[in-house]
């Protein structure tokens, strides 16, 4: 599969914060979840990708081309879905499309109408009267209607109710059936990504902790719970983290090391992405080198 986006050793320094040696890549046909706590560097990384801010060092490639200095042309192939209102609120959905269309060489009005029908977007309704979830669908419809190959989404499901979130996620799964497209999905709502993301990239304090396939990541670690009497047995496998609870303890460990545990009073569970983000961020044990 062709690499559609690649960051190599990207650094950007601000007062009090820095992106440090950020490297990862995304291939066509896949959804990558970009996770991290608020302030970890997700939006800063996206702004570097879009050349809204300039990295101090490192390289960014889009569609196999170096992005710096060539992004105006490359943006024709990128769709954006951000957690903010970027449309003309006093215009209708159809009116916004008329304003936006001239900016894209490959704008497809028939495709836009099809996506509006598919996403249940009312063409004659003013944007200011749309719900937040409907505005997100409008942004996705616009991105797809100029045949964007790379769709970059920054916190698109934040603040949406569960029904709208599921509908938006289902739409992304439909979109990615076109293997010439890729989706870069930045969010702190990790439960959404367990449903749709093929890959996870985790940023913490400006550093990439990991970037790998979602299924492999979820299988690599295990949560272990048990009574305090069994803590010594679990400590022997050198877990990544352990904490006492009201009923005993909870431990986070690599699955390989946990295979030696056979105590009947231990419960071994597959962690969520939120668990992984919490423990690796807390201990700093996930860095990609």
Automatic annotation (TrEMBL):
Keywords: ATP-binding, Nucleotide-binding, Transport. Signal peptide: none annotated. The keyword RNA-binding does not apply. PROSITE patterns: ABC_TRANSPORTER_2. It holds the Pfam family ABC_tran. Residues 4-230 form the ABC transporter domain. One of its GO terms (molecular function) is ATP binding. This is ABC-2 type transport system ATP-binding protein. The lineage of its organism: Bacteria, Bacillati, Bacillota, Bacilli, Bacillales.
């Amino acid at each position: 599969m062709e690499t559609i986006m690649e960051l190599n050793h990207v650094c950007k320094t601000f007062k009090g914060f820095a992106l440090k040696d950020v490297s990862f890549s995304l291939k066509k046909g896949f959804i990558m979840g970009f996770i991290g706590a608020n302030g970890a560097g997700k939006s800063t990384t996206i702004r570097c990708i879009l050349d809204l801010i300039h990295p101090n060092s490192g390289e960014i490639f889009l569609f196999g081309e170096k992005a710096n200095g060539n992004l105006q042309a490359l943006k024709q192939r990128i769709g954006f879905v951000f957690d903010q209102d970027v449309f003309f609120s006093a215009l209708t959905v159809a009116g916004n499309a008329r304003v936006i269309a001239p900016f894209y060489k490959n704008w497809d009005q028939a495709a836009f109408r099809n996506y509006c029908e598919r996403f249940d977007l009312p063409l004659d309704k003013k944007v200011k009267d749309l719900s937040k979830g409907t505005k997100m669908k409008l942004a996705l419809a616009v991105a797809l209607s100029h045949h964007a190959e790379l769709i970059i989404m920054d916190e698109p499901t934040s603040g949406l109710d569960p029904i709208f979130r599921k509908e938006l996620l289902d739409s992304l799964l439909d979109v990615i059936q076109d293997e010439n497209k890729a989706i870069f999905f930045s969010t702190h709502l990790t439960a959404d990504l367990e449903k749709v993301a093929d890959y996870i990239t985790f940023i913490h304090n400006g550093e990439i902790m990991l970037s790998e396939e979602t299924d492999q990541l979820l299988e690599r670690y295990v949560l272990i719970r048990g009574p305090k009497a069994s803590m010594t047995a679990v400590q022997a496998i050198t877990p990544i983290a352990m904490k006492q609870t009201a009923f005993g303890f909870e431990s986070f460990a690599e699955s390989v090391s946990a295979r030696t545990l056979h105590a009947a009073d231990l419960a071994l569970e597959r962690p969520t992405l939120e668990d992984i983000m919490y423990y690796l961020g807390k201990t700093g044990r996930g860095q990609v080198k």
